[in-house]
Amino acid sequence: MIRGSIRAALAVAAPAVFAIVIGHTDSGRAQSFDFARLQTMVRDYTVVLKIKVEISFGMQTNEQEVRLLGTIVSSEGLVLFDGTPVSSEQHGSMSGMSFRITPISIEVTTLSGRKYKAELIGVDRFTQLGFARITDGGATRFVPVQFSLNQQFKIGSWLAAYMLLPEFVTPPVAADVGMISSLIESPEKFPLTVGFGGLEMASVLYDERLTSVGVLGALMDPTSASSDAGGIITGAGEGDVQLLGVVTGERIQKLIASPPKKGEDERSWLGITLQALTKDIGEFLNVGARGGIIVTDVVKGSPAAKSGMIVGDVIHEINGQPLEVDMEEKVPIFQRRVAEMAPGTLVEFSVYRPHDQIVDTLRIVATLEKAPQTAANAPSYESKEFEFKVRSIVFSDYIQNNLEVGSLSGVVVSELRPSGLADVGGFELGDVIQRIGNTSVNSVDEAQAAMARIVADKPREVVFFVWRNNKTMFVNVKTDWKLQ
Amino acid sequence: MRQFALVLMFVLLIGLSAVGSTGSLQSDIFRARDMVLPALVHIQPVVKDYNTGELKKQAVVGSGVIFHKDGYVITNYHVAGKAERIICTLSDREQVSAKFIGGDPPTDLAIIKLDLSDYRGTIHVAEFGNSDSVQAGQYVLAMGSPLALSRTVSGGVVSTKDRFFSQEVRLPTGEQTGNFNLWIQTDAAINPGNSGGPLVDLNGRVIGINSRAMMFANSIGYAIPVNIVKEVVHAILTDGKVTRSYIGAHYQALQEMEEYFGTDGVTGVLVSSIDAGSPAEQGTLRAGDIIQQMDGQPVSAHFVEELPAFYKKIATLPPGTGINLRVQRGSDTLNLAVTTRLLGDLLGEDFECAGWGFTVKGITRQMQLENQLKDSLGVFVEGVKRSGSADDGGLRPGDIVIAINRQDVTDLAGFVAQYNELTQARTEKVLLGIKRGGSSRLVVLKAAAKEETTQND
Questions:
Q1: Is residue B145 domain-shared with residue B232, that is, in the same domain?
Q2: Which domain holds residue B187?
Q3: A62, A213, B169, B317: which sits with the fewest CB atoms below 10 Å from its CB?
Q4: Which residues pair with B297 in a beta bridge?
């Protein structure tokens, strides 16, 4: 057993080698998988995806193809896969270059050799699982994988999965085994495994009775799961944890029932900024909870504001369940609980409100609303002539610039072609354009209309009125219409 | 590359020997050297640095020049501004101590006074010239202690007399500087340690105070024009400080904007930004206004190089002065009245909370503006010491401490009083209320002072 786990641990680094070694030397446990039966089981729902993506960095773009292992999870042809290579989280909304991945086409090939076209539906930000739908299946009823629910996991029990092999190898998959190595309780329940690696990401995991217990996923670094702009902001620290384990059947079922939508943010928000209630702070505030959330700011007009929540409130229960958030690293537990509930959901918060040496106990009911747009999803417009892209102002712009929400109007310069007209004219990423020529602009549509008029008029120069770092200024862009 | 360097050197040597043969330039250089070098001062201050969350003392080296027989020396603020003690070496290599008299971060100038009580030598004084009559191409000498090599003379020409930096320039201590002056650029070698030393013309007059050099460049140094220095010296010696006014407006050169504003041939100063709550805002001045007259006198900033003079024009008015601005707004001409306000200190006083592992600054009006604070309540966290109790508790530089143990902190004095009380009482845990951006957070400090005491016992 000890030997087994050492080898299993090594396999994280070199899963392919491990698979071969285990086949020859390990006695007993690994061989109790009936791989012959598994092979026939998976033929129809295990697929290889070829996704063509356009990768844009700033205003440079190029195409690439990614190959991934996928699984058909519904009879209508919903395909689940590792969404990381196609998820386009825009980093830094007001400054820095944007990095964006746009899927162009998806080809799905089953192990039995059938080919389909598919379209991306979206990527779940918490599990990074991607969903695509087969579009040319016609009336085909697919045979999906069936995940078992409420599976009991045990440290030491073995799991099997398929890994993707390089394109020139036939068949394109190989079996692999791993072991449950820990039952993580916090920041979320997560059965951790050893023996699997990146090649098996999002692969279905089977127990020894060949029950599908979930798929391989990463225990998300809670700080990266918290949002840049997704409504609730955290000040949590840095880190990049990649621990692989089981994304359970229940979670996947939930996602299958309402898959994440591309470009549309269906997350909910409460509209607060927050801080963990540590034991030390709890003592000072005289609140006996074993953890909770301190409300550090309430966004005007947000569900929290409407519910009567105020700065300094300590949320210690959500729908009657205690919130054991006693360190900053656990703040995302709360954020996630809120974000995963549908907009419109009524949520009851048990709240302590400390003031002058006494603590009031309150129950606050808030109706969650759809989270505000992120910078990545905000409407945008690209001016080919001026070689820049603008997008509408989003919630996180106000937060990052320490401004009151709604206090700034205009459009944000989100991309600049290096040495392009706008760049040379003196624009900087993150500039907020408030006026183009003599026209005030408050939306991307207005910016587009103003730019269209300029393109028609072809003036020698265009003066923009711009907000930058809490000051305003005029930016004169010299045009060169001959070059167009 | 090597060959190229040799060729250049050759040309230079020829040039010098040719000059030498004429006699006059070389003797001018000697004369200028002899007029100023005896007044040159090698300055070794120990400066206080609060950036890292604890008070650190650092020995630095700079230069200066004696301009008054009582031992007054002009140098840079970034040399002597935060000095705890100052040792000076005079041109006869005698060492004397000096004390800080006054400083002015916006011009990066400071005055120190030599302690001459035990000095037996003769004090030489350098004379200030007129920086307005400086010309590009004019021969100059830079004197000082580059890389601590004292009594160094380097030579070159004035490369330009009106350099403007469009990017904001900040002192190592954090203050914005250079808003009220242009810079004399020279190719006389200026290196770290030259700071505060004189730039001298061939008449032996100080025409500038060497202050900065372009990094990774060859011979691009900058001096503060001596006419600015004279004003600052006068103000510090009379009032101990330079008092300035502001109205909270920012300006842009009108060049390239004339067509847009329809001001072809019209002179004026373009207002680009107005600070919230400023006198300019109260006087209804707006971005896009073109100031054509100030108190009946025409004003103009067609080129960026003209901007510092306009900022200075307002800054030199006494605070509380009512000014009449005639502005063009679109096709209208308006007369606006704006009352100037005291600019005050750019940054507040520093304080080290050694027991808690962080340093703070008082919050000035300028800091309030720069950090977009709604009020000036609290103290500004300047640095957080690594692995100190504040660091462990999650305090960050830039946070504003607004409460200690749920008692409001109004200003630095109040903060210091609360700090002293709590540390003297050896309070083990302290709850700080802080502002970070728009949110109000809590930080618990577990006082490290106690542990340290135990260890020392």
A1: yes
A2: 126-239
A3: A62
A4: B294
Lowest mean pLDDT of A92-101, A227-236, B182-191, name the range. Answer: A227-236
The one-character DSSP state at A93 is: S
> Which tokens in the block code for residue A36?
């012959």
Q: What is the total count of domains within chain B?
A: 4
Helix, strand or coil for residue B89?
A: strand
**Across the interface, which of A399, A470, A474 has its CB nearest the CB of B437?**
A399
Where is the domain boundary, B82, B114, B146? B114
Residue B418: give its domain's CATH number: 2.30.42.10
Question: Looking at CA atoms only, how far is residue A57 from chain B in angstroms?
Answer: 27
B322-370: per-residue pLDDT in tens?
999 999 998 899 999 999 999 989 999 999 999 999 999 999 988 988 8
Backbone angles phi, psi at A282, to 5 degrees: -55, -40
The chain A residue lying nearest B272, using CA atoms, is A473
The answer, yes or no, to whether the previous bond of A259 is cis (omega within 30 of 0) is no
DSSP annotation string for B406-436? TEE--SHHHHHHHHHHHHHTT-SEEEEEEEE
Q: Determine which of A215-224, A392-401, B150-159 has the lowest per-residue pLDDT on average.
A: A215-224
Known catalytic residues of B are 78, 108, 195
Q: Over the Cα atoms of chain B, what is R_g?
A: 25
Assess A379–B contact: CB distance below 8 Å, yes or no.
no
Nearest-Å Rg of the Cα atoms of chain A is 26
Rounded Cα–Cα distance for residues A247 and B439 (Å): 35
Separation between Cα atoms, residue A295 and residue B143, nearest integer Å: 59
Q: Is residue A382's pLDDT more than 50?
A: yes
Cα separation of the two ends of chain B: 64
Cross-chain CB nearest to A476 (options B256, B393, B429): B256
